[in-house]
Amino acid sequence: MKVLVVIPARGGSKGVLKKNIKMLGDKPLIVHAIDCAKKSKSATKIIVSTDCEEIAAIARQNGCNTIIRPEDLSTDTSNVVTAVEHVYKELNEIFDIIILLQPTSPFRTSDDLDTIVSMFEQDKTIDGVISVIPMQDMHPARMYNFLSNDEMVPFLSEGETTRRQDLKPVYYRNGCFYAVRTAAFFNEKSFMVQHKKGYVMNANWLANIDTPRDFKIAEILYQDWKNEGFNN
């Protein structure tokens, strides 16, 4: 299977200045995504899509091809789908699978990526694979809506007083991998295609970096990640 890996990285970041090239451990945040893809046995082509020459230069220094996206695809409200469509059209090649690696979720490995590709090979009926983690303490059964008078109403009709251990498992997208068959991507204009499976990952490594607080947590997690011997 031909697999296109796209790493989207805009230059503008309101939460963390120059977030995508800020150092996480011993390398810029985006390089964690690049290394994951480069070490994969399944990635046919790896592209960093960016509007920033500084990001593009770092990507090229780390052995990754880049495509500069136009300004109208690089605003705060731009959809990543349009950026990936732009990459695909610029390459003018045919790929079976497209995998999105967001730099802001850095704790993943090339083995994860290869396993996800194998899921497509083993099950021809699925069009997508999304990485998730099991949710326990933040289960929807512990969530509420407020009425106009601030009265609390359980988000779920059942489970408010159920022991955490007895709650039915639910899963949360951790942002590490969005993988989709190319035909389904262009038909549905989404990575969240109808026929998809979840790839369950370890909740201990959840990191979605959008704020300075998120980055500080990721720095702490990265030390543990390295100590555990993971190599992304």
Q: Could you explain how this protein is built, in words?
A:
The protein has 232 residues and is an alpha/beta fold. The chain is 29% helix and 24% strand. The chain contains six helices and eleven strands. The chain has a seven-stranded mixed β-sheet, sandwiched between helices. It has a two-stranded antiparallel sheet with strand order 2-3. Strands 8-9 form a two-stranded antiparallel ribbon. A hairpin with a 5-residue loop joins β8 (144-146) and β9. The protein is globular and about 55 Å long. The two termini are 22 Å apart. The relative contact order is 0.18.
**Integer average pLDDT:** 93
Provide the β-strand percentage band.
15-25%
**Structural class from helices and strands?**
alpha/beta
The spatial strand order of the largest sheet comes to 5-4-1-6-10-7-11
- Largest sheet report: 7 strands, mixed
Number of DSSP-assigned strands: 11
Helix content, binned percent: 25-40%
Instruction: Give the end-to-end Cα distance, rounded to a whole number of Å.
Output: 22 Å
Number of helices: 6
